[in-house]
Structure formats: C-alpha cells, structure tokens
Specification:
The chain is α/β, with parallel strands linked by helices and 246 residues long. It is 39% helix and 20% strand. The chain has 8 helices and 9 strands. Helix 1 packs parallel to helix 2 and helix 5 packs parallel to helix 8.
Length: 246
C-alpha cells in the first residue's frame, strides 16, 4: 500500500443512479493506470442514488490501491457532489470525470502535461480543434449547449469553448481554494468555477478530448436545466465573491 502523503493523482467520480456504467468505468480507470509509475486514488461520490451504484462501486473499489466511497442522501446535485470529492482528495493533481465514461481516463496524459507546464485548471473541450466526437448529442441539445456557452462567456466575461465537459484537472492548491468558495450545487457549478478561476487570474487551458454522448444515462433535462443554468449565470456574475484568492 502506498502512503497517502505520496498520492500524485486523485480521480473524483460523481455518480447518481449509474449502476449501468460505474463498474465498467472503474475497471477502465484501473486498467489504464496500472501501467503508470505514479500513485493515485479513486474517490466515488454517490449522490443519493436509488439503485446499486454504491454497492457496485464498493465492490470494484477493491481493485485500487487507494479507494474511497463517499455517500450522502438525499440527492444534492452534481456541483455539491463534485465539491465533496474534490475537497476530500489528497493528490497533487485532482481530476473529476463523469461516471458514464463519456471521456475516458486515457485522455489524462495530455492534461497532466498541461499542469506540468504551469496551468492551474485544465478543461476538456469537445469544441476545439483536435476534439473527436464518437457519438453526437441530438441536434437540439447541441443548439442549447452552444447557446449556453455564448451566454456564459458574455455574462461572466470569460472565454472558453466548453463549460460542461465532465473531464477537468486541477492543481491541488487551485482545487481547494476554488471549491471552498464555490456555492452552486447544480449544473452551473462548472461555470462558477471557471468564472472564479478567471477572476483570480489562474492559468486555464482547454484540451481537446475524445467524447461520446451517453444520452440514455444522462440526468440532464435540457430545457429545464438550461433555464435554471441561465438564472444561475446572473447570480454568479452578481455574487459577492472575495476580490482575491486567499
């Protein structure tokens, strides 16, 4: 067993009713990282699932040198769930990735390289040159997603191409400081974190990823969540955040 203090990479996997995906995703993570020479931990955060997500995660967790299952109830939202995992992580680099494996762990190397170049936050993007979409979202969801990105950049004064791709790497210090200050429990948490990172002059880089739509297991309700997220953007823009990252 490796010493907790030596953990290099933490992988946070938020999960809500993901019994169809969680075992395969964890197996994929283990298979890829077993060849790496750095230490790592996996943290699954179960967001009040009503199925066997937690039980399957606990069973698969035995294959990892360091594994933690966090559970809370009732369902609190993806933002709350990611925050819980990120603040409990011990790694020098902390990744969160979606439980449905829409972006696989085999993308991690280029994210680590960007962090080693000095970037504090490394964002997966499906909308820049080099990205590969193996299975597209339905056209109406793509249109809503593009509109949300344009509105986010306009309202928040940021400049990124993809806010909600569920594959992002943070340096430990940046992760702890940003997530301690984050307030959004719903899908707008990504926008809030990018806004805060930009506000505090952290170095952000977007990396193209290989991605596939997992519509059958997606928890997003496009119209309802788009309206809620739009309202959240204005709340983020007007919130009394501190003027400096302390």
């Amino acid at each position: 067993m490796q010493n907790d203090k030596q953990i290099y990479l933490s992988i946070v996997v938020p999960a809500y009713n993901e019994e169809e995906n969680i075992a395969a995703t964890l197996q994929d993570i283990a298979q890829y990282l077993k060849t790496k020479n750095y230490s790592y931990e996996v943290i699954v955060v179960d967001d009040g699932s009503h199925d066997k997500t937690a039980e399957l995660a606990a069973f698969e967790g035995k294959i990892f040198p360091h594994f933690t299952l966090l559970r809370h109830s009732p369902n609190r939202g993806k933002g709350y769930t990611v925050k819980e995992g990120m603040l409990s992580a011990k790694g020098e680099l902390i990744l969160f990735m979606d439980a449905d494996n829409s972006t696989r762990i085999n993308q991690i190397d280029k994210f680590i390289s960007a962090a080693l170049e000095g970037f504090d936050v490394v964002i997966g993007s499906r909308r820049i040159e080099g990205a590969i979409i193996e299975e597209y979202q339905p056209s109406h969801r793509r249109l809503l997603g593009n509109a949300y990105i344009k509105l986010s950049n306009l309202i928040l004064g940021t400049n990124v191409t993809d806010y909600n791709c569920g594959f992002k790497l943070y340096k430990k210090l940046a992760a702890k400081k940003l997530f301690e200050k984050s307030t959004k429990n719903d899908w707008s948490f990504d926008s809030e974190l990018i806004f805060l990172a930009s506000k505090f002059n952290l170095r952000i880089k977007e990396i193209p990823v290989t991605w596939q739509d997992k519509q059958k297991t997606s928890k997003v309700k496009p119209l309802r969540d788009s309206i809620k997220s739009l309202v959240s953007l204005f709340k983020i823009r007007g919130a009394p955040y501190p003027k400096a990252l302390s």
